[in-house]
Give the backbone structure.
Amino acid sequence: SRFNIIKWITLGQILSTFLLSGIAIFLISDLVPYMKDLSVIEKISISFLTGAVFVARSPASAIAIINELRAKGPFTQTVLGVTVIKDFIVIILFGVTLNISETLIQGEEFNVVAVFLILIELILSAGLGFILHYLLSLILKLKVEKRYKTFLLLLSGFGVYQFSYFIRHISFDLINHEIFLEPLLICILASFIITNYTRNRAEFIRIINDIGPVIYVAFFTL
């Protein structure tokens, strides 16, 4: 229901952050030791690569603050929606910016295939998220104690990250290109489906809320 406002806020934040930070880095480039002796083209490339990095936000931090404050309502939903969407849009933005930078600096042709591969990776991640929701549904339907379900849910989430690392390494060995499946996107999509389109919402949220503090302690300590 808040998709329209999330869309415009996300677009506004991405464009403003990317452009303003990129321009700012370029303007102070003569004050940055490793940039001051570079050509104008190289300074522009570095500036906008940095701008693409500045677009990134931390969904984990946003979720932790929302949970800590027990925040609810339209503003919270909007913040969370914008944060999550930006997290995978920045992947595309960085890939495109990196290709443009390589074209400008090394004189190579713009690699459309590389951008296409990024889109394929995101589509594969979304597909795996859809598959993961089936696995989570099966776990939540098990007639076992809650602690066992909690363990299996955590194992599933951890497994997604391990699977992503495995695919990166094996794809590089086989085709000399790292296929990066976005673990966060996979998990978010799976939990989105579980929460909104299945009967397991209440139990799923209860388990996540109970185990959340332990996970946040481990995450932010690491």
The radius of gyration is 20 Å.
